[in-house]
Write a structure and sequence with these properties.
The protein is α/β, with parallel strands linked by helices. The chain has 3 domains: 6-103, Cobalt-precorrin-4 Transmethylase, domain 1; 107-206, Tetrapyrrole methylase, C-terminal domain (Methyltransferase, Cobalt-precorrin-4 Transmethylase, Domain 2), CATH 3.30.950.10; 221-397, Vaccinia Virus protein VP39 (Rossmann fold). Helices cover 25% and strands 25% of the residues. It has helices at 21-28, 37-40, 57-65, 85-90, 106-114, 153-163, 233-243, 260-267, 279-291, 330-337, 351-364; strands at 6-11, 32-35, 49-52, 72-77, 98-101, 122-125, 143-147, 170-175, 183-188, 201-206, 250-254, 271-276, 298-302, 318-321, 343-348, 367-371, 374-379, 382-387, 391-397. A 7-stranded mixed β-sheet has the order 13-12-11-14-15-19-16, with helices on both faces. Strands 3-2-4-1-5 form a 5-stranded parallel β-sheet. The chain is globular. The two termini are 38 Å apart.
Length: 399
């Protein structure tokens, strides 16, 4: 059985004085101390070898692997398992070989200062991640705790909130939490004029009123940038219901158009790959993913199907075919790629595509339905119902 050789110790702004005797003993007994320069400087008198993190961080993982069997101590900020180095190391080194001693992290300290229940907060980071990821979490009553990139993060967050219609959001910036230089600054998004402070800061945001974009399926059509190639919101709601997304699940959106299905799948917590042949729509997919808060969860692949499928090696949990159904072999290729229990969903409007789906359903099973939607619109001085093009909807589950 593997023995622990790698220790990860969380350190707060109070430095070594805030560590438990056990953590201090592990640092004292280490053969090698690893971490960022700021943390290594906290242990000036140790005779241990020093391993300062370099870039890219992936190179540090290879260096650590070569030290297996020696007493290695990694120094980290706060709780290493909250968006910290402990998460990265545990992806590459078995948990049985690691000992983690966390310190109260920025989220816990921030919640304590504000009197917030940590279980009621969205704990997020914009350190090394797009600022627009925050867009997913904007709703009335939300409380966000955000790990900053640096001192420029608070004004950027304020600008984003004001731009998105949340200018009355209350912002609290907490610098150097838990240390002698701790400082707290408050204000609102629309009048945030405070000078930049310390790079090490945590941002708390409390939202009251603003535009609501539900995470449930069927966002309004105007929420997306599109050229008309869009699954309308009523049909999209039914489509997402058939796809049945869950956190971490992978979707292939084949013939993605503006990416509305892929983006809504990602907003439900999944990962999506959007395949689109028309170059003008690729930027639309990217912009929609950014504006709706999922820029890291939607991967975009340009090219025609089925050739564009050749670069995909991870089997999907679900596939939506929104375009290209009549391409020879596409249905079969997608079905074969699905995991067991995976779902194949397709919407079509032409007779030719409908015939293909009906033949497929007769051979493979699944459910076919027809979706007919009418919307109220003006007819001269009066109003009347205007039908949208009927959609034939297929959903099949692979055994």
């Amino acid at each position: 059985m593997s023995q622990p050789w790698l220790t990860i110790i969380g350190i707060g702004e109070d430095g070594l004085a805030g560590l438990s005797p056990a953590a201090q003993a592990l640092i004292d007994g280490a053969e090698i101390l690893a971490g960022g320069e700021r943390h290594l400087e906290m242990v000036p008198d140790s005779p241990a070898e020093r391993l300062a993190w370099g870039t890219p961080f992936s190179a540090n993982l290879d260096r650590l692997e070569q030290l297996r069997g020696r007493k290695v101590c990694v120094l980290a900020s706060g709780d290493p398992q909250w968006f910290g180095v402990g998460v990265s190391l545990a992806r590459h080194i078995p948990a049985a070989e690691i000992t983690v001693l966390p310190h109260p992290g920025a989220f816990s300290l921030a919640a304590a200062r504000l009197g917030w229940g940590l279980q009621d907060c969205a704990c997020l980071t914009i350190h090394g991640r797009p600022l627009e990821c925050l867009n997913l979490h904007l709703h009335p009553g939300a409380r966000l705790l955000i790990l900053s990139e640096n001192a420029s993060s608070p004004p950027k967050v304020a600008t984003l909130l004001a731009t998105k219609g949340w200018g009355h959001a209350r912002i609290t910036v907490m610098e150097r939490l838990g240390g002698p230089l701790e400082k707290i600054t408050t204000g609102t998004a629309h009048d945030w004029h405070h000078p930049e402070g310390a790079d090490l800061n945590t941002i708390a945001v409390e939202l009251t009123q603003g535009p609501i974009l539900s995470r449930l399926a069927g966002l309004p059509d105007h929420a997306f940038l599109h050229d008309g190639q869009l699954t309308k919101h009523e049909v999209r709601a039914i489509t997402l219901s058939s796809l049945a997304p869950w956190p971490g699940a992978l979707l292939w959106d084949v013939g993605a158009g503006c990416g509305s299905v892929a983006v809504e799948w990602a907003r439900a917590g999944g990962q999506a790959i959007a395949l689109e042949a028309f170059s003008g729509r690729l930027e639309m997919i990217a912009r929609n993913a950014v504006e709706l808060g999922v820029p890291q969860s939607v991967r975009i692949i340009a090219g025609k199907v089925p050739d564009s499928l050749n670069s995909l090696d991870e089997p999907p949990d679900a596939i939506f075919i929104g375009g290209g159904l009549t391409v020879p072999g596409l249905l079969e290729r997608c079905w074969d790629a699905l995991k067991p229990g995976g779902r194949l969903v397709s919407n079509v409007v032409t007779v030719e595509s409908e015939a293909k789906l009906m033949a497929w359903q007769a051979a493979q099973g699944g459910e076919l339905s027809r979706i007919s939607i009418s919307r109220l619109g003006p007819t001269g001085r009066f109003q009347s119902w205007r039908p949208l093009m009927s959609v034939t909807h297929y959903c099949g589950i692979k055994s």
